[in-house]
Every structure is written in structure tokens, then in C-alpha cells.
Task: structure prediction
Amino acid sequence: MSTTADRPAHDTIDGAVTVDAPVAEAPVRQGSSLDRFMRRLLILPEGKTATADEARSAFQKSLVVSSVRCLLMYIIFPFVLPAVGIARGVGPWVGLVIGVLAIISIVFSIRRFWRADHSKRWHYTIFGSAIIAFLIYLAVKDGSALFG
Result:
């Protein structure tokens, strides 16, 4: 009977070679001081990385949330629902909730772009920040419509 210590570092299973050694994580590129500042601002753990596919998935999800918000706020609530006589005054409440969800989603996708050390992380950070600023403006506008 063989023990773990008797086995070689490489085992062959059906002709495929496997390695029992642990896989090292990809190192995070340090970059400029501005890159390090953004990593601290986004509260990213040292050495942890994400894949480009995870970053792309997060980006797609944040776009879907923002798109749903725009469709609801600018097409469904102002035109469709009042035409059938329902949902008067519901728009600002829904706008606030969906806006907060969109902001959270965008922040998560920005974090994934940075964790993946994606080559377009600065582009998306600027794009996402502009959308967040617009969503905050809309949230203030909705809040003043509700409470002001």
C-alpha cells in the first residue's frame, strides 16, 4: 500500500499529468501611487485578484441595473402607467431604490475591474464615477420631490 509520501509529485491519470503542488495566485501589479490610492480607496485586499471574465460580468450586471432604472423612470412610470391610470407618485420611490441598487452595482464592478488589474480599469472608473454622480443628482431630485 502506498502512502502520500511514496507518491511522486506528478501522477498520471488516463495519460494526463497532474501536479499536486498548490497553485500560486497571480501577483497584483503595484503600478503608480495613484493606482495604490485607488486600491486603498476601494478597500481591495492585497494579493487577491479577479479574472477579466468576473470584471466583465460585473460590468454587464451594472449596465442591466442602470438600464432597467432608465426604462422604468423615463418610459414606464411617466408614460405607460399613467396612461392606464396607475402608479401616480410612485416614480420617486422606485427611482431612489433602483438608483441605490445601480450605485452599489457600479461600485462592485469598479472593484472587480481593479481586482482583475484590467487594462481599462481607469476608463471604467471614470465612466462609472460619472454615472454615480448622475445617479446621486437624480436621488437628490427624487428626495426633494418626496420630502421637499
Summary: Helices lie at 33-41, 52-83, 91-115, 121-147. Strands lie at 10-13, 16-19. The first strand starts at residue 10 and ends at 13. The chain has a mean pLDDT of 78.
